[in-house]
Amino acid sequence: MSETTPYDDDRAAYSRQGLARLVLSDHAKEVAEGAAGLVGTRHDTDTGIAGRVSQAQQLIELAEQTLTSAVTYEVERGSSWEQIATYLGTTAAEAQERYTLALQKWINAFEEPYCLDEAGRKRIPQLPTAAYDPTWASDQLDTWAFIHHLGINDRQAVSAGLVMARPADEHLAPEEG
Q1: N or C: which end of the chain has fewer CB within 10 A?
Q2: Rounded to 5 degrees, what are φ and ψ at 116?
């Protein structure tokens, strides 16, 4: 689709590597929050039978999503499949095969950041929320990290390290003076 969205300019300020890192940060936050829900015991009696197993299973699913986001980030960062496979305990070919579909979906989402619903009225983002609306996501993640003391007193613990897009004129040769 060629129509623009209110988030296009914000997204253009970030490199794909930076957007992938935001998605990874967002998914890691979800894992942390999911794990935190299993720490307390006060409400165990209010949880249905096998409810904690359900929570733990959901945590595994969130962790798998986070792993996919980490692979996407590492590919965007320039890591080779051999390097990635080392940490997955597999071969480069197996790692690439396992994550090709997710990476293709990521790449395609930049070509078409949203599609219309069946009625043709509502835009449905194809990028994860953190990449689709990165300004909002980085603000939210910075606040979350600050509240949880992940960078003690750092109000930009997430956004400060993101790789932003280079300005369009930066690729030009420096002026001779």
Answers
A1: C
A2: -90, 150
